[in-house]
Design goal:
Helix content: 10-25%
CATH class of one domain: Alpha Beta
CATH architecture of one domain: 2-Layer Sandwich
Pfam family, one: BamE
Distance between the termini: 107 Å
Shape: flat
Strand content: 15-25%
Structural class: alpha+beta
Radius of gyration: 31 Å
Organism: Novosphingobium mathurense
InterPro entries: BamE-like, BamE_dom
Protein name: Beta-barrel assembly machine subunit BamE
CATH topology of one domain: Beta-lactamase Inhibitory Protein, Chain:B, domain 1
Keywords: Membrane, Signal
Length: 164
């Protein structure tokens, strides 16, 4: 009679390793507008206007706030490694430009060259001025001339902002 113990243990070990390896894969996520190239190609400068673009592509991700009121459609694919920060792996920005009458002038497309990689300056933001400790923050105003609430000049019972 044969023993199945070692085979079951080996199969269990293989399954455990597969489960651990599966937990170490990156998560790929889509954010924003889903680009359908056929619909984008159907928007024609000089033919379409704001209403027809909205019916074809949908509402824009955002509209420019300054200058011409261009419409932007933003699509991103983001990868998040295990125990890591999300990183943009693909990006498409469609910009639909209109003339003052609301007709399409051009449809521009940009990619990853628009992604800015910034690195913050550590855990603290440098500021100008004095560096005070906790005790100085808590008790630094005690005994200051004209401190608020003390009834002197500038206090709640003192003169108002116009000197009266």
């Amino acid at each position: 009679m044969r023993s199945f113990g070692p085979k079951i243990a080996a199969a269990g070990l293989v399954m455990a390793l597969a489960a651990l390896a599966g937990g170490c894969t990156s998560i790929r996520d889509h954010r924003g507008y889903i680009v359908d190239q056929t619909l984008v190609d159907s928007v024609q400068p000089g033919v379409d206007n704001r209403l027809s673009v909205e019916k074809t592509l949908g509402r824009p991700t955002f509209v420019s706030q300054f200058g011409e009121k261009d419409w932007f459609y933003v699509s991103q694919f983001v990868k998040t490694p295990p125990f890591g920060r999300p990183r943009t792996s693909e990006q498409t920005v469609l910009r639909v430009r209109f003339d003052p009458k609301g007709n399409v002038v051009a449809v521009d497309r940009r990619g990853m060259e628009q992604v800015a990689r910034i690195s913050p300056n550590g855990d603290k933001t440098p500021t100008l001025g004095r560096h005070r400790g906790l005790l100085e923050d808590l008790f630094g105003n005690i005994g200051a001339v004209g401190a608020g609430g003390m009834g002197g000049q500038g206090g709640p019972s003192g003169p108002g902002p116009n000197g009266s």
